[in-house]
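Incident review: delayed structure delivery

Summary: a single-chain prediction request sat in the queue longer than the usual turnaround. Root cause was a stuck worker, restarted by the on-call engineer. No data loss occurred. The affected request and its eventual output are reproduced below so the record is complete for anyone auditing the incident later.

Affected input:
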Amino acid sequence: MIVLFVACLLSYVLLTGFAGYKAYQSQQLHLADTLLPIWIIACWSSLAAFGFGQQSLGNLIELPLLLFLTSLLYNFQVYLVLSSPSKRLLTRHAIYIVTLMMTITTRLFFPLIVE
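Output delivered after worker restart:
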């Protein structure tokens, strides 16, 4: 499980590295942006620990899927939205809410994969 988390975090860094560097150069990188993958892992782990949704080892595919979708959202935020300074805080809150909804939705509706 730890290897899965580390592999997912490394792939997230590879997918968002250029966007993060661009945000850092333009001084728009925030701590909330760097904690986004930890937020996804914490939400997914909490929901799985409390027995929310169907439980099987097949659900381990949910975490890489969520991190991939979150990396797309982060890249969208950096390249398209952060050009206007008035929308920075709003988009950060929106991304956290959208990722929480994605996590709950995948835990509820992801099909049970037979082990």
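Verification: The chain has five helices and no strands.
Action items: add queue-age alerting; document worker restart procedure.
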